[in-house]
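Archive entry. Fields below.
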Amino acid sequence: MLLDNQLTPGDALCAGITLSAAGIVEAVKNSGLRGRGGAGFPTGLKWEATRNAAGTVKHVVCNADEGEPGTFKDRVLLTSYADLVFEGMTLAALAVDAQRGFLYLRGEYRYMLETLEAVLQRRREANLLGKNILGQAGFDFDIVIHLGAGAYICGEESALIESLEGKRGVPRNRPPFPVTHGYMQQPTVLDNVETFCQAALVVRMGADNYKVIGTSKSTGSKLISVSGDCPRPGIYEYPFGVSVRDILDDCGAVNPHAVQISGPSGVCVGESEFNRRLGFEDLPTAGAFMVFDDSRDMFEVARNYVHFFAHESCGFCTPCRVGTAMLQQTMDKIAAGHGTRHDLVEIENLDHVLQTTSHCGLGRTACNPVLHTLKHFRPAYENRLKSLDFEPAFDLDGALARARQMTGRDDAGAHLKTEDA
Amino acid sequence: MTISTNKHSEYLDPILVRRQYNASDLLQILREAQEHYGYIHSDAIDYLSQKLQLPRAKIEGVASFYSFLYLQPHGEYRVLFSDNITDRMLGNQALLEEMCHQLWLQPGKVSEDGLVSIATTSCTGMCDQGPAMLVNGRAITRLTHQRVQEIGHLIRNRTPLDE
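PREDICTED_STRUCTURE:
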């Protein structure tokens, strides 16, 4: 549907002009389209709220800060379907009467910049951007590209807006939401790359034709980024409601025993749950689908994700800044063979603190990789634990290593005596 | 190594004019400024602070927040291995160690001749074509021992990335 669309630049925009601004909002609402960035907020409601928001200066922002590990669908859309992305943004501008658009492109995709600028220039020359678009008096809209600089947190919408304004990417308090107080505190439509593509398809196909695809609460199709242990990784498009097993079969996975859905902040699904379905009813997803076969140690998978969160915590709120670091230390302690039962309990306590006190979603989801893998692959943890109930994280003898190095000593007298040594 | 303020105005002024001295474009200005030396020189921050009428602390605060903005030189070639679990499963750690060995440096540190640094970065969105790396922002995928060796040679010979 999206990947094999036959649209030429301007097709969806012409359909949108026929519908008029209010008609576009109505169509997107009726289609049941929900945000493709993971949260799944109804796109039509967002556009309607921005349209009704007070103020004459409004903005359209495309979130191309695709930072969730395992996701790469936006890279493919921006490489091969850039016109459709910009077309969706232009439709949003028409719908809410916005004058300026931003594409916030993650720093890792810097190499796409020149190509994307060329697409924008071509659209300006074809009167699909600029003044009086397609001869419609007063329909003025243009898009600029802003580059990120390697901060995962900027994928969070309010952090992204802060970053667009040239500041540190620290999430704002919400509400107020961007629909009324976005870029420069002005009403802003902010959607994911794929959402804009889907919105363009909705306008072109009509809401009724669109909503028959997928399920009742998750209409349309979803791009899935398949990676990991399978012979055919890549981008797949499915109607919502597809089962995990169907995707595993299609990508040719052999002996899969776990799939990480929607990246580290998503859900780890074990073999017993492969009949679960992708969609907002059961397994919501931003698109990542990482496959692990039965040779993989799921503890190490979780440890990798935990390191990721600790690295990417923005540092603004203490629970997340300290909590993700503590979680990382605990996982490293278990990996080094010093973990005990007590540490597993501590992880659950830490999760409670992070869930209840973190400023944004990063902290709230940081413990998920551990809790989910513990649920399905507890032996991977237990095999590493000591039989003791507790062992301090502080290694007394290890702390003397520097002194030993400086004095050039490594004899028995330079080591602390331990009871089992 | 001192660089006079004039030298900075030479490349910063065109950026500032294009960005209309807009403080809300600070991140974009810093990114573009960095493309000149590969890092943001301390004197350049003073110059920007004066021209954008922003406190120096604010500019440094923004620059230090983003992992792709550098306040210190990081070598002519900045090699970043994507470190998602999918890259790890395809052996990126062995490749990183091999490259560090080949170019005589430690991960995260700049080589003594200032030529190159090698580190890891979060997932670069190339998981279907891993293991992957970014060299000065350019994505290189499907790394193998042989390809890493070749990249090491190209860096040692200071081959420009465009070639």
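CURATOR_NOTE: Chain A touches chain B through 48 residues (CB under 8 Å).
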